[in-house]
Amino acid sequence: MRKDRAYPHSMMPDAPPPVPFIEELRSRFDYDADAPLDVREALIRDEGGSALYDVSYAAGPGRRAGGYLVLPPQTQSVAGIIYLHPAPGDRSTFLDEALACAERGAAALLIDAPWAQGEAWGSALGEPEGDCREFVRIAIDLRRGIDLLLSRRIIDPGRIGFVGHSIGALFGGVLSGLEKRVKAYVLMAGTGRFTDVIALNMPSFEKDTLERYRQVMAAVNPIRFVGHAAPAALMFQFGTRDEFFPRYKFLEFAESGSMPKLIRWYDADHFLNEKACRDRIDWLSGRLQMRGEEGRLP
Asked: Strand ranges (DSSP E) for the chain?
């Protein structure tokens, strides 16, 4: 067995479910798509013809989500991209990239994830059943974010993309098995299991506690869903010098993804580099039929 595909016995991957059981897993993430979005937005500024808004929306009963909304100068038929930042990070993490995509004719929703609160959110984690419920709610926040994008008439429902980094990529993996409205997913420096994130951030967890966490989270892990992303296309981006997760966890995640997919490695740490940024913008431009730098389809 190749060394980079050898899994420690205690960390064997959860197998992706057979196709007949995926609908049962998806049912955990059902929501009322007809509920009012109650969108609240305020113009912040124009950036070279692109408009930047502060926006929030009703994600579920008693729950709101928000972030930045970037709209390009075009007034019809543009692509739309959901961005989900890593931790540490917030809605501004991908703002420069979203503005670059706006120049190519794409709107973007940059969601302020709960982990933007830093320790205030992280300190509430650690109880697996509660965390599982919270993670399901976050995935529904993202689905409602797609509803918000599609409520703008200028956005083409056939050209929706998603970009997620680190824990954002884990939620993107889950979303890929739920949402057929998204045509292209970029998953950056993510793994296939939420337990990987908890183990990294809560090293004081005892072995038995971590095992219970792994069992509870098994049904909502990204690896259970990413194999059912098709016909959406997947792009995985990883750094060869990642300081948080070992290579085998990245391989486990990427190899579980459905086709079509592209796996790219970079001489970079967990936060990747400028080449990775250029690559994903170009890849999204092709998949979502955005214009190239000269106004041509790439």
From this structure: 40-47, 50-60, 63-71, 78-84, 106-111, 155-165, 184-188, 233-239, 261-266
